[in-house]
Amino acid sequence: MATPTEPLAADETAAEAEEVKSAPRSVPASAREYAVAVAIVGFATLIALALRPYLAATNLAMMYLLGVVVIATRCSRSATVIASFLSVAAFDFFCVLPYYTFRVAESEYLITFAAMLAVALVISAQTSRIRAQIVSAVDRESRTQALYRLSRRLSPKTCVFDAALAAA
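Now predict its structure.
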């Protein structure tokens, strides 16, 4: 890659040089991401409340899992983990009898809560892993492009001294 003091090679554009510098970095979760996560869980709760008379409680859990998927694709892992726990709590509070308490009348719902939380956490972990792989792939691509540009500059050079000057 060309430094600011040396000119760009003929096949290296300023956009390519800038692209290498601006690789995505991992950013900690912000308050905005947590607010988005809470808002999406709230929206899933509204949908679940609207569908509660028509669907079984275990089917309403899918609304919350869908919300966690949306959060996982848009927010950090920590925001997704928080949303996972909030989803289970909201599902218990609003969709499981007795309503508006955290008591559970049927112990079978404890299995539903555990499975729901496990699935939500797996979704969070997998999307986090995919993001890390994307960053790694972009990094490898930028290194490969830099090596390609260097090899293009070195290929017409016939003596070792000319190649060393081109590489420097």
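The radius of gyration is 26 Å.
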